[in-house]
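INTERNAL AUDIT FORM
Audit reference: QA-55
Scope: verify that the stored structure record matches its stored sequence.
Auditor: D.O.
Record contents follow.
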Amino acid sequence: MEIKLLHWLDKHQPTSIADIAKGLKLTTLETLKAIAKINQIQTGLIVNSNATYALAHRLDWLDATKLKELLQNRNLDYAPHIQDKLESSNAYALKHIAQFKSKTIVSCDWQYSGRGRFGRQWLSKIAEDITVSIIYVFPSNFNIALLPIICAVAINRLLKNHSIQNCIKWPNDIYVNEIKVAGILVENLVRNQEYHTVIGIGLDNFAALDRNKLLIELVASVDGLISEFNLFGFALLRREWLDNCCHLGKQVAIVQNGNNITDGKHVDIDEQGALVIQNISGLKTYSSSAISLLIKDK
């Protein structure tokens, strides 16, 4: 209902509550409740002025036909699977993994309960930000542990292509001016001795770029980095990740389950993408997905 209302407003604004209700075949009370729910999700998206309602800004809807054209123009053999709204693109992709081929793009205009690392919620703006899960099937000898690092470099490059300076926080968060603008969640299932992998990416479209183009640029960047990894290995990508890291050479704290387990200087990542920390005990590596990093030396 909320997406239908927003589409209607996008075509008929500004307009009265009576016209909205008539257009959507709702009662006035149902319409007001739907508007209130949308504004609760995204404050101020629908504005009321002199008894007429309008969107605070135009929405940039995903268009499956346009996405297919953009993919074809880049010679990318991916299949877009676009929904109006999803609780979580990763959850949806995993639930339906058996029916999706490798290189399927699952995305939506509204993700209302996205997930990040440690089960944290990832909030995205309706028909504005990018929330996407890309499905791949990898052979059993593919080093999937490196995918978060590879995807972080892909997003770093993508933003630089738009002249947006950004940096990477271990393992795969992207920051612009100390604000997190992108996160990655990689989840895997093993089926028929293959990895069925879902790469979930949330990207704030703070620069208001064309959303359909941005989504395909993101897919192209991930695709290119995976190809580079397959051709040349991890050494060059590792160097690129380090060159764009927020905290290389800085004092950091390693935290697990809310407890500080060590402090030290971040000096490297190893061939498996694990953190290398130097402290009074020497060099230590940390690779568990259950740990997080805090930068102490800003």
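Auditor finding: record pair retrieved intact. The first helix runs from residue 2 to 12.
Action required: none
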